[in-house]
Design brief:
This protein has about 325 residues and is an alpha/beta fold. It is built from 14 helices and 11 strands. It has 2 domains: about 1-155 and about 310-320, Rossmann fold, CATH 3.40.50.2000; about 170-305, Rossmann fold (3-Layer(aba) Sandwich).
Length: about 325
């Protein structure tokens, strides 16, 4: 494994600055003693902003502005000369740009979303040297379609120290509003539920639980570490980031199920799973009243993510796959 890590001395990470993935990903690269540079594919110049604005009245301006972002990325690659480019999702990075970069160096995508939401996903997969996604079902399905450069690389938890001080919040949800979640969580207001997320929560039945804002990465970490229980609700079958972030922070995770959850954690002893609205309420109430049991499960989840499901291990796995592909 050491030889594989040494091969990649310089890595360019293509990711939005506001992404929750950036901080832990770059921290893990630092742990692996890899020189890292960053390109924000979501940050636009004044020139690009102008053409995006003009695209409202003349749509071809949108493609012109996007091409300009892609050209800036190509220049960044030429200047930094990385051994590896890691793109996080990168929907505005065109397949032609990816293929051009692949002539210079290895470029991979760690796709942090659900394939079904993207019409051109096949073209995107084909453009990269290697394509990673967290969903095993998508990997199986697309490999059967002939995409042999596709591999499963689940999400991970940031490297954090768990807090053993008195927890500030009883039960917390961090995420976007939808009607399903409003219905699912509405009884939790009685248990001192706190919600951080979009403004839709401020107009919902749970408006009194809404804390009025989105959280950036550092704010999210502080909330997670100061919470007794974090509740989670998946929007699709992919095991989401909150599972790993919660366990990494040492809070008890109470989540709905996901096909891959039993492969990553021991249900009941490292995380808790609820079946429906009433079961969720009952389990939150049960564990709020039983500190020792709650903390035992939370600590076991923390040990699991610290040992296995962290970004350093995920990068090692990524490198072990990428090393098999020829260097341009």
């Amino acid at each position: 494994m050491q030889k594989q890590e040494k091969k990649f001395k310089k890595v360019l990470v293509v990711i939005a600055s506001y992404s929750a993935y950036r901080n832990p990903l770059e921290k893990a690269l630092k742990v692996l003693k890899i020189k890292t540079n960053h390109f924000d594919n979501r940050k636009t110049t004044l020139y690009e902003k102008l053409f995006f604005a003009l695209s409202i009245i003349y749509s071809p301006f949108y493609s012109f502005a996007t091409r300009h972002i892609n050209n800036r990325l190509l220049k960044k690659v030429d200047q930094f000369k990385p051994d590896l480019v890691i793109v996080s999702k990168g929907e505005n990075i065109s397949p032609s740009t990816v293929r051009e970069i692949s002539k210079r160096t290895i470029i991979v995508n760690w796709f942090t979303d659900y394939f079904a939401d993207y019409k051109q996903i096949g073209e995107l997969i084909s453009a990269y040297n290697v394509f990673f996604t967290g969903d095993r079902t998508d990997v199986k399905s697309y490999r059967e379609k002939g995409y042999k450069n596709l591999y499963c690389l689940p999400y991970a938890g940031p490297l954090l120290n768990s807090e053993h001080n008195k927890k500030k919040y009883d039960v917390v949800f961090i995420g976007t509003f939808n009607k399903k979640r409003e219905h699912l969580f509405e009884n939790l207001g009685r248990l001192n539920l706190k919600i951080w997320g979009d403004k839709g929560w401020g107009k919902s039945k749970l408006r009194n639980s809404y804390m009025g804002k989105w959280l950036n990465f550092n704010e999210m970490v502080r909330v997670l570490k100061n919470s007794k229980i974090i509740i989670n609700n998946h929007q699709n079958r992919v095991l989401n980031m909150r599972v790993y972030e919660t366990t990494a922070a040492g809070a008890l995770l109470i989540t709905d199920n996901s096909p891959d959850l039993p492969l990553m954690y021991k249900i009941g002893s490292e995380v808790v799973v609820y079946k429906n609205k009433n079961d969720l309420y009952g389990k939150v109430k049960y564990y709020l009243e039983r500190d020792i049991q709650r903390e035992k499960i939370a600590n076991a989840g923390y040990s699991r993510v610290k040992k296995e499901h962290n970004y350093t291990n995920r990068l090692r796995k990524m490198f072990s796959v990428v090393i098999r592909f020829p260097v341009p």
